[in-house]
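Re: the multi-chain job from yesterday

Posting the exact lines I submitted so nobody has to dig through the queue logs.
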Amino acid sequence: MGLIRIELENLRANPPSKTAVWPALERFLADMDAGRSGFFHLPARSSWERELAAIKPALAHRIPELDTFLHLGIGGSSLGAETIVRALGASRAPAFHFFNNIDPDWILHTLERVSPHKALLYVVTKSGGTMETLAQFAFLRQWLESRLGKERARNHVVFCTDPSKGDLRALALEWKIPTFEIPPSLGGRFSALSAVGLFPALVAGIDGARLLKGASDYRKRFLEQVEKSEIPDALSLASMLVDHARKNGRAMTVLMPYSQRLKTLSAWFTQLWAESLGKNGHGLTPIAATGATDQHSILQLLRDGPQDKTVGFVEVKGFDQTFDIQWHDPTLPAFDLLNGVTMNQLMDAELGATRQVLTNGARPHFTIVLPRLSAHTLGQTLYFLELLTALTGYLLEIDPFGQPGVEEGKILTKQRIVAAKRKLN
Amino acid sequence: MGLIRIELENLRANPPSKTAVWPALERFLADMDAGRSGFFHLPARSSWERELAAIKPALAHRIPELDTFLHLGIGGSSLGAETIVRALGASRAPAFHFFNNIDPDWILHTLERVSPHKALLYVVTKSGGTMETLAQFAFLRQWLESRLGKERARNHVVFCTDPSKGDLRALALEWKIPTFEIPPSLGGRFSALSAVGLFPALVAGIDGARLLKGASDYRKRFLEQVEKSEIPDALSLASMLVDHARKNGRAMTVLMPYSQRLKTLSAWFTQLWAESLGKNGHGLTPIAATGATDQHSILQLLRDGPQDKTVGFVEVKGFDQTFDIQWHDPTLPAFDLLNGVTMNQLMDAELGATRQVLTNGARPHFTIVLPRLSAHTLGQTLYFLELLTALTGYLLEIDPFGQPGVEEGKILTKQRIVAAKRKLN
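And the result, structure tokens for all chains:
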């Protein structure tokens, strides 16, 4: 069973002292026990498997030739699911489209290649009232109904929302739509390992139980460290990031997985980090990157730009498949250099070189090392980054679980919609 | 003919004075006339159309059922092309895959759905020796040859590289591969409007001449302003961004198009901005975002986090298509609010609200307004952002056209490859 490992480099200039960080840890643990956020105990919840197993035969019956999964959701309702599916989805799984925006050209463009007979809509909104998601669903309902008829259209829809509140829950009851619950204490951005992400995982042929086992194993490790009065890795890293920000002005946190299949992990982390920590004039700014690609993009800035960032890598020790580069020809020196090397070795060489460049420039960085990319290691990684985010909030004395700043925008948007409608009438 | 427009808001706290900015402008113009970078005069080059027109019949002859375009390139060799294709590609065009990373699992996973008989490989490396791109090509050459045979495989390949140097040029001569030139003075990140982007555009059914016309029209406007001794818009914005960075510590530049089809534009801009400006301990850090999606991600941080950013929006005034949201039901208030509104209006309301939120919080922002999203407006936008980047470099007294910091990483990577090969033997 491969466990992920956290490696620190140049970060240790600011090693955390136990007296400084323990009070934050204790507040965090007390809040978790009081149910302040559902994420911490989520992996211990045992009912997901049952709920997910129950839906499988119903789905196969309703849509026998399922070939397209349309995921409707935005922000935390979308990114966790997309991270899991892009990282681990089987190549023979249905095509996944994540409708996380309201651009009508893009939606229509995407639908041109989709057959409603073979499509499943998964509508995810925690509150049941997210405007973008409801607007999309209103349109896709018409799209389905005009092609399949009213009754059959409903067979192509699954919801995920609050257990009792909101428009989507009301509709679920009226239309008898299979509907997963998002526990009220679980913020959207912490919901990847709930039905929000687990149902798409199921359809993509990913073992949800292994994802949860990964999270649960990481949680166990965290609690063991607490039990032994050691500073847990997530808290240790959180403390160093906070110190580098406060004392050295390193206000940005780069996350750069060296794996194309983990590209969405950076986007998910960006949302988690920004929305959890950007409060009261504080907050660290997340920067999403992907290796080796972005060595040809932001590396120049990471090496020679201002000393205002810490960089986190995600390293996948072994890819599932690899291949040799074969091109023996001394007259073509660039090809010849690569002759006999595997893609795995090339990726290793590039990550090693990038880390060396940062170390040489006294630029702090850390690495999350995954023995392989699997449901088990991804579950650990998601949970570790959630812990890291929450604990960073507690150290900054920011509540990581609210998002008060989003409200103003929602109210202003509604006012503008009402005004637009008034103009129409 | 719709021209793009630059709107500034809250940025004017630091209006540029002509005496402060004119010397940088004059150095820039002198360097452009001396051929320091090919991007400035690129739209005036008239040979693209001829070169591109010449390849069309050859292609149709070589691959009569072309359904997949495999773009091999990394950094600037990839992002400009992807930006254009994602923004404007016809829905009936071939499927485009941008192989901009070396993750072997991802490459093999993608190829599972591709038929080599119907695929075209476009291999782009300015130097002709980019390791990642050559490694991919070495593998894809085998993939093609094992399925099509050696001779026919070569019919499925087009190159884009230096006119005379490098391994790819040597191979082009040996194998007689159709090959576009990247002018030596044109840095990869400034090459979107050369054959690097124009050939994929052609295959995607996009009017390359209109892209160039857009760039050329914007260039004309810029030179007219210079002629009249007005501060050109790009310089005016550059100066305000630099001032906000120097005087107010706003070291980050967010680019947030409100259009899903412009999502890659942010990634392209990130590469352009980071690699051009991150030098000598200076540089502004780019943050890629997409509206309305990232209102549910970084908006919380933009509103309530530290005052360390300026935000740029890209607004598309009218989408090509739109649709009404129809859901009249007073018992479902969230749906009912949206009833009768178009997706266009919803997008407008969201962008307007987000701008208002920033204005209310005295957070500076600007908007690039596109009357519509078309080849003509995208050409203008790319050119404007290239001008903005170059001029920001001149104001910061940084050479925006080199990338010295990337070299160290390349050397270290090569050393590690040589070491890995030694171990094998």
